[in-house]
Amino acid sequence: MKIILVMGLPGSGKTYLTERLVPLLKAAWYNADKLREMSNDWDFSIEGRVRQSMRMRTFADFEKSHGRFVVCDFVCPTKETRENFDPDILIWMDTIDEGRFEDTNKIFEPPSKVDFHIKEWNNHNHKDVAKEILKRV
Question: If we measure between CA atoms, which residue out of 18, 28, 6, 2 comes closest to residue 137?
Fold first, then answer.
């Protein structure tokens, strides 16, 4: 199965898309804020963000090793964090120009290669994406 990353700035609609996509793929779901809460790790330094990307990857690898799709939604703001996470499928929620956290806006690097580039919220993105993902397996 596949590891899917839904990434983008805070407020771009990552969780909105993911909560609609997960049932269509019958996927496991890991949300960054929930994992940070479970880990009691609210460090948003570069090192903290790198650690979070590796933490998210550990959970994703577990699900994939058990034959499941897994969707992880988190900012994943830099090339390094995306390389650490190394998704099979990358969905970029590019729906806003800047997020609500200035520190994140300053370090955010748009991805150069994505599988799905979502530029607007609508009522069918999740269906379109799920259909394309399911065609690939």
Answer: 2
Q: Tell whether the torsion through CA atoms of 32, 111, 24 and 64 is positive or negative.
A: negative
More confident residue, 137 or 7: 7
For range 1-22, the mean pLDDT: 97
Residue 78 pLDDT > 90: yes
Half-sphere exposure in the Cβ direction for 87 (13 Å, CA) = 26
Confidence check: pLDDT of 121 > 90: no
Number of other CB atoms surrounding residue 122 within 10 Å: 11
Q: Which one, of 74, 76, 83, 64, lies nearest residue 110 by Cα?
A: 76
Q: Using CA atoms, how far apart are residues 33 and 36, in angstroms rounded to an integer? A: 5
pLDDT value at 101 more than 90: yes
Q: Taking Cα atoms as reference points, which of 98, 77, 84, 72 lies closest to residue 17?
A: 72
pLDDT of residue 105: 97
Q: Does residue 101 sit in helix, strand or coil?
A: coil
Report the distance separating Cα 51 and Cα 81, nearest Å. Answer: 9
Q: How far apart are CA 80 and CA 46, in angstroms?
A: 10
